[in-house]
Amino acid sequence: LIGFANLKGKKILLLRSQLASNELGELLEQAGAQLDDVAVYTAVTEKSESSRLKEKIADSKIDWLTFASPSSAKGFFAQIRSDLVNSSNVKVASIGPVTSQHLKNLSIRVDVEATEHTIDGLLAAIEGTYE
């Protein structure tokens, strides 16, 4: 953790999703923290009636799909075929490199990736395509 104080001996409780990567925990431990890593929730994909959404994508009635996490991409593409998105005019925006890599692993093209990995950064990345 470049730029952070020495965390040697500091006790940190890391609350996260069951699906989250170990990256932050590993960085905290490398910085010397005594880590208690607790998964406090699980993201569950909700199946919904998706025929209207499929139709809107196919008919170019949606300009952007935004993905703020790998789990949002996983849930979306459990219901919508990747070839439908890739063959349409819809653009794909990702909040950051982890989400982008997950999308690429699903064979989805990523049109824009936020440089600041926040919702504001995601919106700024989309807005930047119109400047």
UniProtKB/TrEMBL annotation:
Protein name (record): Tetrapyrrole biosynthesis uroporphyrinogen III synthase domain-containing protein
Domain Tetrapyrrole biosynthesis uroporphyrinogen III synthase stretches: 7-123
One MF term in the entry's GO annotations: uroporphyrinogen-III synthase activity
Any single biological process term in GO: uroporphyrinogen III biosynthetic process
Family annotation (InterPro entries): 4pyrrol_syn_uPrphyn_synt_sf, 4pyrrol_synth_uPrphyn_synth, UROS/Hem4
